[in-house]
Amino acid sequence: MRRFTWFNATSLTLGFVFLYMPMVILVIYSFNASKLVTVWAGFSTKWYGELVQNEAFLDAAWVTFRVAVFSSTIATVLGTMAAYVLVRSGRFFGRTLFSGMIYAPLVMPEVITGLSLLLLFIGIGLDRGILTIVLAHTTFSMCYVSVVVSSRLVSFDKSLEEAALDLGCTPMQSFRLVTLPIIAPAVISGWLLAFTLSLDDLVIASFTSGPSATTLPIKIFSAVRLGVSPEINALSTIMIAIVTVGVISASLISKRSVVRQKQEEQEAAQS
Amino acid sequence: MRRFFLISAPYIWLLALFLVPFVIVLKISLSDTALAIPPYNPTLDLTQGWAGFKDFLSKLDFENFVWLTQDDLYWKAYLSSLKIAALSTVLTLMVGYPIAYGMAQAPDEWRPTLMMLVILPFWTSFLIRVYSWMGILGNEGLLNQLLLWLGVISEPLHIMNTPTAVYIGIVYTYLPFMILPIYAALEKLDSSLLEAAEDLGCSRLSAFWLVTIPLSKNGIIAGCFLVFIPALGEFVIPSLLGGSGTLMIGKVLWEEFFSNRDWPVASAVAVVLLLILIIPIILFQRNEQKAREADQ
Amino acid sequence: MPQTVFAPWENPEEKPLIQFKNVTKRFGTFTAIDNLTQDIYEREFFALLGPSGCGKTTMMRMLAGFEQPTEGQILLAGQDMANVPPNERAVNMMFQSYALFPHLSVWENIAFGLKRMKMSKGEIDTRVHEMLRLTRLERFARRKPHQISGGQRQRVALARSLARAPKLLLLDEPLGALDKKLRQDTQFELMDIQEKTGTTFVIVTHDQEEAMTVASRVAVMDEGKIIQVATPDKIYEEPNSRYVADFIGDVNIIEGTARKVGEDGYDIAWAEGQEPFHAKTNRELSDGQKAYIAIRPEKIAVAAEKPEGAYNSIKGKIVDIAYIGNMSTYHVEIPGGLMIKAQTANTRRLARRGFTWEDEVWLSWTLTAGSVLEE
After folding, report:
1. Domain ends where: C187, C219, C245?
2. pLDDT band at A126; cut points 50, 70, 90
3. What is the average pLDDT across C168-172?
4. pLDDT score of B261
5. High-pLDDT (> 70) share of chain C, %
6. DSSP code at position C89
7. Strand pairing partners for B132?
């Protein structure tokens, strides 16, 4: 049985204090009554009130949300296809180029991706707006989806698909009835990843958005460039709260199902 | 037929929205700046057929790249980006390794929780995490207030808008990228190896140096690349925390494009940045490949 | 009497269910199956036995339709199977990993193949129940694969592949994941089910005991070729080569040169200055030809005195004794340094057993105890 040693407990404590302190401070100061962010002047929720009345922020949030939903959905479809091709298709013409294009956006600096997409959109005369951001986000997030899904597919027992074929499925049925249900958790986490990446993205959105469509990160960036603002603290707190609730509940659900599965397996082995 | 569709849909998407844009960047980096829309010369005129294409090719040159070497702003920016990325990678490793080690040594029932605590910031907005330091590091920020109150310093430290703030920002935001691969490597480590080392006469510390560190090498290398590569082209951190005093190439590119509207030079900056990145990317790929083969 | 013995391969009138005709399968430069011709008959329990990489799995996957032969033809009931995809073959397979769909219950797993057959709901229900009864799984119908034990999973896999009433059932190492005790029980169960359903079974295994137990005929394979096909007793008693003799069970192999004596007898000279061993075979060997005698350890008797009238006897020294409980195996060194294994049943209590280390003993065996092999 492993136990915490003093050294390990200390390094973990310091490490997590470092990771969480800034965010905790952010949350605390979002309830600060003072406009001056560094001086505590009592508890207040007035910045939240101002935030919900700020139309520009609300508009930007709505744009961001729509972009994230569309881009992550398309990215999940394309990324899953790409993963399936990479893991299952063997050789085909231009495979190296294909896998290169899947992995390259993961390491490509955002400024370059953004710049190149913007030059493309200008080149073909596409007006910048929600559509161009969706195209841009889909392009880089499909690569993340495909990495997540293909790591699941690699460990997927191929004989399950063969069994489906053997039992009379066409390849399409075998994918729909067997492969997809089994890799569904990976596809869902791919979608969530793509969704978060899209919500988060500042650089690529700045390049590919037009005056008609401003996303939340762009709004936040232009606000905080000028310095700390309590309104942004309030907004950050809301975003941190959403993510925290989401991640904790997701991990609790998956932990519960793992525990249950283990228990059932043990019972089965004993029977 | 179905297979063809399966391959071609993502393939065409990536060709059109990844490869073609990059070719355009390459092409514009070879063009001249012009006061026009779009603000560069020449533009490809396909109505003139082959002759037009040849004419177009003959007008391309490396002038912008020559310019990058002449104006010391650019090479200084590249060098300073490399330095900041490299140094902050080392710092992240120093902060991240003990955390990963502590996680791997933690009791089994604690690990999922610790894992979640590392992943949680990863899902939180990058921008917000960088922003959270602005209120801490400023001259009247919380850190200075704390230190002044403790009497450690008598005058506020000047951290905000210096490279130090950028280092802190990079270490903070990329820490999970360093912890996770090292933790993955350390978790696989069989604890009986350490017992064997001690049994064979190693002290605790030398067993750590001779067994733990070499066996987590792949995780360390992976973590370092995962921090170094994105840090090199970083834009948000230097522009929020670094101030005008910090030169980083991502920021230079952004300003070249949005403020100076010099598209050809911005494109040339991008091309050179990519050329610099290719080396670590290839090394990283090779390390991953080796790790995969070792796993089998 | 001969009519009651199941041996369609001896009847030239019988039409084979499966025919491999000069089948070759290459993966790149590697030849997995090398110009193989073999017939398998209806209702047979045919075992493909060999070490890993011998091509047995490739043969099975070609029958299932997951691999196509590079050259040659595979016929099923007279029909060429090239270009028939796996889902349209009247062949089902039981996978080594069982390949049970983890997201479906036992019932749904068994019904999976039936649902692809345009059966009515009622028919599917009846058939699934029939299969559940056959494999004694009625109680577990609603469970998911991870909620049942390994042996039960094995039976679900069997039920699922039998549900579509295939002409041919392929079993890829079907008992490999079970522990030894369960494996033995399941072997008899498999034979039982095969008899009840009358399906032709082709089983792939590397476990010779398993192949010998269940199969009507065993094909011993090596490097893409079938070395010998015969009933289990023939494979054991009359191996056609050193490879088969060595692969199946324990064996002593003595190398020598042959000289014909009489009608079907041979003297095998195995060492300078020693009396040759005598053996009978219906094989034709020329004088002076290199030959091998393969003798199973249990066919060699151990005695303290030279046995009277034995055709083959030789004196040696006990070097090692392996006591297994019901048997003891003696490792006896004979002149020339050759080590011979001889096995005796321990019918008496330990204290009364005669021999111990370093004892000089006499080994003896009959004329027909060993097989004479050319290669």
Report:
1. C245
2. confident
3. 94
4. 81
5. 98
6. S
7. none
- Number of domains into which chain A is organized: 1
ipTM given for this complex:
0.88
Residue B70 distance to chain A (closest CA, Å)? 22
Domains of chain B: 70-295 (1.10.3720.10)
Nearest to B8 by CA among A94, A72, A71, A154: A94
Concatenated DSSP letters of A118-182: HHHHHHTTPPPSHHHHHHHHHHHHHHHHHHHHHHHHHTS-HHHHHHHHHTT--HHHHIIIIIHHH
Q: Are C44 and C194 in contact (CB under 8 A)?
A: no
Interface with chain A: mutation pick from C66, C67, C84, C87, highest number of A CBs within 10 Å = C87
Q: Which residues 150-189 in chain B show a CB within 8 A of chain A?
A: 172, 175
**Residue A266 distance to chain C (closest CA, Å):** 8
Measured between CA atoms, how close is B230 to chain A, in angstroms?
6
Give A264's contacts in chain C (Cβ within 8 Å): 144, 146-147
Cα nearest neighbour of A180 on chain C: C103
From chain A, pick out residues whose CB is under 8 angstroms from the CB of C128: none
Pair (C240, C254) in one structural domain: no
Cα separation, C296 vs A189, whole angstroms: 61
| Lowest mean pLDDT segment, chosen from A121-125, B51-55, B193-197 | B51-55
Are both C212 and C259 inside the same structural domain? no
Mean pLDDT score across all residues of chain C: 89
C5 pLDDT above the threshold of 60: yes
Over residues B31-57, the pLDDT tens digits come to 876 655 566 766 665 566 666 666 666
- Given phi > 0 = left and psi -120 to 50 = alpha, else beta, which region is A94? left
Any idea what the CATH number is for the domain that residue A147 is in? 1.10.3720.10
pTM as predicted: 0.85
β-pairing verdict for C265-269 and C91-94: unpaired
In a shared domain, residues C234 and C367: no
Contacts (Cβ under 8 Å, ≥6 apart) of C190: C158, C171, C174, C175, C201, C214
Report which listed range, B227-241, C268-282, C355-369, is most confident: B227-241
Residues spanned by the domain of A194: 66-221
Tell me: do C114 and C217 sit in the same domain.
Answer: yes
A→C interface, C-beta within 8 Å: 157, 159-160, 162-170, 173, 177-178, 181-182, 261, 264-265, 267-269, 271
Give the pLDDT of residue B55: 66
Last residue of a domain, one of C211, C245, C279: C245
Question: Is the domain of C211 the same as that of C263?
Answer: no
Please indicate, yes or no, whether residues C211 and C351 belong to a single structural domain of this protein. no
Q: What is the pLDDT of residue C2?
A: 45
Q: Are residues C19 and C120 in the same domain?
A: yes
A250 assigned to some structural domain: no
For C195-211, letters b (16+ CB in 10 Å) and e give eebebbbbbbbbebebb
- Total domain count for chain C? 2
Which CATH number belongs to the domain containing residue C167 in this structure? 3.40.50.300
Cβ–Cβ gap A163/C99 under 8 Å: yes
Query: Could you tell me if C204 and C153 lie in one domain?
Result: yes
Residues spanned by the domain of C300 = 250-373
Contact B134 A29 (CB under 8 A): no
pLDDT band at B13 (very low <50, low <70, confident <90, very high): very high
- For the record, the structure tokens of C345 come out as 């049943």
**Is A53 within the bounds of a domain?**
no
Asked if residue A138 is part of any domain, the answer here is yes
Residue A169 lies in a domain: yes
